[in-house]
Design brief:
alpha/beta; about 280 residues; 8-stranded parallel beta barrel; 12 helices
């Protein structure tokens, strides 16, 4: 059920790691037919699935619910599940308890959490409890209010140095990979050279060890303005709109359901029932 050694093997071989987010069974069933390496059940489900403006409202129960759905369609895929806001900040004991609940009840392979030095003791506690941890540095969406919005991080010496030092700390305590979000490409390139563990980029340029995008963003399903780092690889959203328009047109025109979509009844039986019930 997922192989964590894949990450290090690909780092060493130079082959890129491919990840997408996923939050539901139907989408996961489609991804089962691809050669993706791993799936992130991100707290971005708050934006994508719930229509929230940020990830703050997401609960542990939300993460378990959506991870379970994805796992049912992807029994062999490596899954990583986000720890939601304030589920890993209070104490080491609470962090392990919350992450353990997600691991036990959802079937995920690992958890991801945002931050560096300020949460490093809690990361140590997770590693000691045999819970695999992926770090997340740079633009950490759960901290958007501290940053004053969703802004690129690491553009000056002090913030770049902190990201580097935090990454080294996460590696030292045993994180198996680090997501780098919304940082300059050169900083991500440097981090990927410095670190012996893989880096997964999202808005971090082309020189990380892998990439992750939101499923709905990558396939053209998301509406509204998208971040600069998003590329739409398909226009599934328009395909859905066109398909629904065709459906409503055919229903109104009475061309759907057609004969091939219809179950039949014996004519004599129908006539008998009609005589009985329609006077």
């Amino acid at each position: 059920m997922g192989d964590i050694t894949l990450f290090q093997k690909k780092k060493l071989s130079g082959e890129k790691i491919t990840m997408l987010t996923c939050y539901d069974y139907s989408s996961a069933a489609l991804l089962a037919e691809t050669d993706l390496d791993a799936i992130l059940i991100g707290d971005s489900l708050g934006n994508v699935m719930q229509g929230q403006t940020n990830t703050i409202p997401i609960t542990i129960e939300d993460m378990i619910y959506h991870t379970r759905a994805v796992r049912r369609a992807l029994p062999e895929m490596f899954l990583v599940t986000d720890l939601p806001f304030l589920s890993y900040h209070i104490s080491k004991e609470e962090t392990v308890r919350n992450a353990g609940k997600i691991m036990k009840e959802s079937g995920t392979n690992a958890v991801k959490l945002e931050g560096g030095e300020e949460i490093i003791d809690n990361v140590k506690a997770l590693i000691a409890a045999k819970i695999p941890v992926m770090g997340h540095l740079g633009l950490t969406p759960q901290s958007f209010q501290v940053f004053g919005g969703f802004k690129v991080q690491g553009k000056d010496y002090n913030t770049a140095k902190k990201i580097i030092e935090d990454a080294l700390l996460l590696q030292e305590v045993g994180a198996f990979a680090i997501t780098l979000e919304g940082i300059p490409e050169k900083l991500a390139t440097l981090l990927s050279k410095i670190l012996s563990i893989p880096t997964i980029g999202i808005g971090a340029g082309n020189n990380t060890d892998g990439q992750v995008l939101v499923f709905q963003d990558a396939l053209g399903i998301s509406r509204g303005k998208l971040p600069r780092f998003v590329k739409q690889f398909a226009n599934a959203g328009q395909e859905i709109i066109d398909g629904i328009k065709k459906y409503t047109d055919e229903v109104k025109a009475k061309t759907f359901p057609a004969d091939e979509h219809t179950y039949k009844m014996d004519e004599d039986l129908y006539n008998s029932l009609e005589r009985e019930y329609i006077k």
